[in-house]
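Regression test attached.
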Amino acid sequence: MRKLSFLLVILLLTAMQVLAQRTITGNVTSADDGNGIPGVTVLVKGTSQGVLTDLDGKYSINVPTGATALQFSFIGMTTQDLALTAANILDVVMQSEAQNIEGVVVTALGITREKKSLGYATQEVKGDAVSAVKSTNFMNSLSGKLSGVQIKKNNNMGGSTNVIIRGSKSLTGSNQVLYVVDGIPVNNNIGSYSSQSTGAVGYDYGNAAGDINPEDIESINVLKGSAATALYGSRAAAGVIMITTKKGKTLKAGEKSQIGVSLNSSITMSSIDKSTFPTYQDKYGAGYGAFYGPDGDAWFDKRTASGALTSTDPNDPLVDWVPTTEDASYGARFDGHPVWGWYSVDPESPWYKQSKPWEAAKNGAITFFEKPVTYSNTIAIDKSGEFGNFRMAYTNFKQTGLMPNSELKKNNFLVNGSWNVTKKLTATASVTYSKQDAVGRNSTGYNDNILSNMRQWAQTNLDYADQKTAYDLTKRNLTWNYNAALNYPIYTDNPYFQRYENYQNDTRTRTIGYFALNYKITDWLDAFGRVSADSYAEFQEERRAVGSVATAFGVSRANQKSGYLRRDNTYSEYNFDFMLNFKKKLGENFNLSGLLGANQRRTNNSFFSNSTNGGLVVPNIYSIQNSISPLPYPVESLPKIGVISQYASVSLGYKDFLFIDGTIRNDYASTLPTNNNKYLYPSVTGAFLFSNLVKTSWMSLGKFRLNYAEVGNLAGFDQLIDTYVVNQPMNGANNALPNTKKNPDLRPENTKSWETGLEMSFFDSRVGFDLALYKSASFDQIMAVPISQTSGYNFLWVNAGEIENKGVEVTLNLNPVRTTDFRWDMNINWSKNNSVVVDLYTDPISGNKITNLVLGSFQGGVTLNATEGQPYGMIQGKDYTYDANGNKIISASSGLPVKSKTATQNLGSVNPDWMGGISNTLSYKGVSLSFLVDMQKGGNIYSLDMYYGLASGLYPETAGNNDLGNPVRDPITDDATSGGYIIEGVNVAGGVSTPNTTRVDATTSDGWGYAVEPHRAFVYDASYVKLREVSLSYAIPFNILSKTFIKGITLSAVGSNLWIISKNLPYADPESGLSAGNIQGYSIGSLPTTRDISFSLKLNF
Amino acid sequence: MVFSACSKLEDLNKNTKDFTAVPGEAVYNGATRAFMNQMFTPNVNSNNNLLWMQHWAETTYPDESRYDMVTRPVPANHMNTLYRPVLANYQEASRIITAKVLVGADVPGQEKVRQNQLAIIEIMSVLAWSNIVETYGDMPYSEALDYTNPSPAYDDAFTIYKDLLSRLDAALSKMTATSAGFPTGFDNIYQGTAAGTAKWMRFANTLKLRMGLMIADVDDALAKTVVESAASNVFLEGEKASMAYLTSSPNQNPVYTELVVSGRSDFVITSILIDAMQPSTPDPATSVLTVTVPDPRLPLFATTLEDGTFKGGAQGSPNGYNNFSHVNLNNVKSTSAVVLMDYTEAEFLLAEAVERGYVVGGTAETHYNNAVTASITSWGGSAVDAAAYLAQPTVAYATAFPTWQQKIGTQAWIAYWFRGFTAWNSFRRLDYPKLIAPAGHVEGIDKVPTRYTYAVSEQTLNGPNYTAAAAAIGGDTPLTKLFWDKY
């Protein structure tokens, strides 16, 4: 293509001046591959005098006296002006437009601006950054690549990704970033229901932004602060991820029509990172202690081989049975003697009435998982010409999960185009249709979650291959966890039965599209109008097969042994935008541009869900009408929100070095009371490009920026007028007051923020940094504050509360080596955010201050809180008690730590101290190797897995030897043979501390974990260092392909999450969570993390 | 661009699916159901009285039996349920019914029905309030149930109690025994008929009898007045206040929900109860009663082991589910009724009143025999069995125990099977049977708790008032004795 352009330009360029004072020569190379670029236009700035580079990218130009700079330009690459110095050699590296750091960026409302003129921080990444690793959510690929953006993927199949920019600003509302694709806001609802996020039974249905196809992304620009997002208004208060999709290339004057075809095919194979999965102790098996047998003092249940509790036949004596009711491993030491168990119970079991040796499982929990495979294939065709441009693409994505019987498929179709209807009128339109089908998502939380069992409540003797055999043979729930009568499961189903019978499935179809017209009224004024729609329909089915353990299920969340639930959810958002854009030069020194706009937004949601009640009549028919008991009332809601807005923005540039922008926006929202529903908010930004004022040879760019912004925010749907709760009739109708009192006097919320920054690059952009400092305060938040329940309500909707976020973001770009063939680029991101809950609520009548807001209550008595004076997201629970010197106080009589009386001690915030990422790219000719190290320092995570898993004796920590060299689980004696262990700390008597010497009895499940230690012991530092991504790609050189019809071939291998270099949370990934949202810092039954290695082939024709 | 016309943007915010007005009887019905569920559920997160009263023991996780009120916050859940789903909704039902405009043929007749409805709500409210005071001590009362005051002050428990007694009298005085109450389906205790109204009045008097006796140790004169004015109108033989449940979820009997629907095996019956109901040689330290004639209720309460014997588990320790007797599910169906108060309780209370020297008619022994007999027959035993049981010296009133408190207290304890709060009230008032704290109890709580601690949320949401109340009652601990619990 470059060679073709070369000839083209030769034909066009005919006039060349020869009168000159001196000759400048040099090499023009591509930043992409380091090769010389032929056909680059080299112009003496301010003249029409120029030359083209030759086939090797070399040039030679005669420069007249008084010339100050040369301009280098080439299609698809950023035009560069380089100042002339005394030197006669001037080499240039040309950057592709897409990866250009200092070029044009897309800002709010899709307005393209020169990045250098912006008075706020933005950060751009190329589409490759999210499409190289094939993930169900493109944001997963950005962790560590952006500063100030916390991206937390969890391991749920198709699960949601938590994306927080510059800290949480809302106490109880959404803190998730707004996604905008080609100017269209895209819904990002988090699909979890009924307290799934705090650990109740449920599934993580992902967040809706996961529908955005990474293969279609050209570039991503992150708008971090309120000033950057001011024109989007309140919904962008948490920041915006602006996505520009790939389009047919816009041709420059004289360019010929072109057709591009690209194929991209990849396969990804995943395997478990074992450091994120439990290692079991292998010495002791099932039980809670010696509580079994007829006298309640044996390690095993005593039954006959056929399960009878009494025996009169000496040939059929009572034998040892694994206590099937018990989901812990505090039982007898493995000694290989024959024991009967769950496998001996059922006549269809291959081991009916037979024993197995008492030993650690040969096929432990980890053998349960499958090896996930992901296929992704994309074909795209585009055409550009005088008519405009056009692109069509189709992507097929298929992923099998870690759990048996799990699969996620996506099909994405995209058509977009731009049509030059007349010289003045341009029409653009785009439609994306996507369909996602998932089967067998993993359930999350405490109950009904195989992973919670594996991590908290398990028998180390359980052989998963045996469970599989039992299920495969019978298709029934032959579980390891029979109740005492050995006739049905007590707590836990056979995991294979659960995966193959109690699976869920869901489908989401989505259409996003717009139609826009742009009319050039004059050369300085455009009128733009657009209608856009984002709509999706979700359908979800959840099942419990007949024969399952009773668990919370259905719309009532009552315990049910079988059942069927379906949800139908549709969502749509329509936006009507009208804008007048102007751009005018005022005299020599001033550039004025701006816009006037209006927007009308409507969102409609329709949710309907129902389920069977009391179980299924006919097994295996999953239908609402197959209900034993009368149906419960369905869940039904129709929320609607409308906002009408007007906005204006004006930008004034002075002499290309000083830029002032101002915006103002007025919103009129449907969700606020009539007298408070219109609100106005401004922003002002300034950029001082001092490198354009004071030109030096060593400074390529120097910019100082400063901004201030306010953003108002509306209430949610239906927070003004009280309505009653309708419960199932108890003979007669049954109504009740709601637990939250609504408020007809709500006002809009407000956020005020300041930001300043310094951006510099030196030595021909080989060293550069961007530093941002910011502070934001969000106050008058609309939230439901808890009030004393004796008032008759649990919560009251009010305007109250304030969160302040302060932070620093640094991006550092280095280019340590840059030769013709070899190039090394380094990018470092570092950011730190400090949040503090400044104020919560003061009751205006009594003056009573509420200083703590519970965001989530977890199993085990731990809570996540917004606490006045503390960072947002404070884990609270019971702490140790300490003496004056900070030693843990241990009871001299029991040897156990003395726990704090209350469970409201601050145990640590979930927010990281800082986050960082270091990426390196090494390229040599067509080969490129890059690796990214992603890290988080600090932050805390509470592990319910360890809280229970230690008490149930799963982990090696509970089965080693004590300080005397004796098995810790041996009984306590007064001599050197004693078991038990000593918890480090002091006994306090009469105010005097002495080192604790009392042993804790560890013969039963009371010896470890939650029974012994306070919550503090299970709060872990969530720091990590991960080798997040390593990629190796090879682009076959142009000269090899030049005689074929193929324009480019790229082969690449990418590994992601290859190595957790460092972490402190045992047996789990500190990033693992239940789902995206405000509830974080809770590790419970998460899937292990996988190492993903993908191979892909990209072809361009 | 043409924007579609919209009459008013604010109209979008209308919730078209939920009600802004509902009938008062539906609110009363919902509140009563919530009340009954809370009082009778054995769910370890909501109610632990059957464990504290040592009828039941736990199998694997004995936290509640050991008086742990933090791991599962029972005091907070109980308080929350009684104030919000129960009392706030009773108040709302009253408000709606009071505001209802009566139209049609017989306005005076309708007015009588309205007054009966309001009185029924008042009786149930007094019952709920009395439980709150008996459970926690001082609590928000005069300033409670008003969202405009989100941090109400606590009132003195005895002051509240006296006010409740006068509210009960006022409610009784408004009732017309020949008029109906709530429409059918909304009163699930007495079905709302005129005959039901008369029963409501006897129920109110039985409640008054109990409330009078509750304060006997602290204000004998007032107790005497209250008891004597109520005694002649209490439950007759066979009468009770109970609520039957339905066949399907979510309106199933709460014990059935926890024992059957849950599919779990969390509870066994204690050796303390089993050993008190059959001839045995229990540990004298924990024994509360020895019998030679087995209690006819034992097979009705408990299941046998495979060998046909009854055996109880240890209170406060883990127990193998297999090894001990369980709750006999023949008496626990999804539709089974829960019993708020009954003739058995009325007779035990009358026996106590006689012993306290109040003029209520009859002898303590007669009332005692009536109570025990009624208990046995109400569970399905025969009068003959009851007589044989009563005849044995350790049960017969004359010879059973040295004090009337122990005689009545021990038998009442057995009779209040499934009625945890009633049993706990009786135990605290009479101080019998002698239940002791199990080994492994939470450090410092070495006796059966005499109150629930305040909800932890009150410390943060109503701090100054909480602190004052805790000081006023003598400390927010489970062992603080409440104003009426002198001994």
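Expected vs. actual: identical. Residues 79 and 455 of chain B are 7 Å apart (CA to CA).
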